[in-house]
Amino acid sequence: MSGGWTGPGSDGQTADQARHQAHVQDQSQDQDQDQAGAANHCEALLQHTLDAIRPPLTWQPGVPTAGRTLPPGDAAPDDPACWYVSRNRNILTVVSPARRGALLGVVERHWRRSGHLITSVNADHLMPGLYATTAHGYRLGLDFGTVGNAYLTATSPPVARAERIGHPPGTPGIARHPGGPADVAPRPSAFCPFWSAGDVG
Q1: For every residue of the chain, which 3-state class applies, written as one string?
Q2: What burial letters (b/e) apply to 23-57, b meaning 16+ CB within 10 Å?
Q3: What would the pLDDT profile of 107-134 be if each residue is shown by its tens digit?
Q4: Measuring CA to CA, which residue among 190, 7, 22 is closest to residue 113?
Q5: pTM, whole model, 2 decimals?
Q6: Contact criterion met (CB below 8 Å) for 84 and 38
Q7: What pLDDT is stored for residue 71 in this prediction?
Q8: 15: burial class by Cβ within 10 Å (0-12, 13-18, 19+)?
Q9: pLDDT 10s digits, 40-82
Q10: Could you report the per-residue pLDDT of 153-185, keeping only the tens digit for each?
């Protein structure tokens, strides 16, 4: 276990995690004015969320998406800030139905503590979800799919287009369109004594 863990499901922070939280919150909006900067910010938001979860989850990068979005209603027709990026993490740890509410609770407390606004909660027992927006307009989501797979998503607000967008090592190929075959998440298979407790699958 890493330092700072105070019990199963705890969202206690180490000093390093607290410093990283401050770094994420203090990042300048000016750094995120194109897709490349926004992608980096999405990655930081996702990683910071995962770092707050104890016991830690096994995960892998999901398929990233990027494209054009409708500009804000008050934007000029030629406003260049009408592109977006979205990054996600597929959770490979088996999270039993009995533990899904606990996972959402840990993430919700972390997002609130980070200054994010909780915008919606889906209280479904088998496929719950949690959604938030950051001060800079990034949208965050934690969802469960039909096979019990959990996934975290971060989507940028409208930003300028970038010629090149970096991706972390191990990132799978870019889907042709959201919801296509390349977006199918893997079935969770990593057992955790805490998060998987009560699973009968």
Answers
A1: CCCCCCCCCCCCCCHHHHHHHHHHHHCCHHHHCEHHHHHHHHHHHHHHHHHCCCCCCCEEECCCEEEECCCCCCCCCCCCCCEEEEEEEEECECCCHHHHHHHHHHHHHHHHHCCCEEEEEECCCCCCEEEEECCCCCEEEEEECCCCCEEEEEECCCEECCCCCCCCCCCCCCCCCCCCHHHCCCCCCECCCCCCCCCCC
A2: ebeebeeeebebbbbbbbbbbbbbbbbbbbbbbeb
A3: 999 999 999 999 999 999 999 999 999 9
A4: 22
A5: 0.78
A6: yes
A7: 60
A8: exposed
A9: 999 999 999 999 999 999 999 998 999 988 765 655 556 667 8
A10: 999 999 999 989 988 887 776 443 444 444 566
Query: Hunting for tokens 């390093």 — which residue is that?
Result: 16
Joined together, the tokens standing for residue 28 give 């300048």
Enter the tokens of residue 19: 């410093």
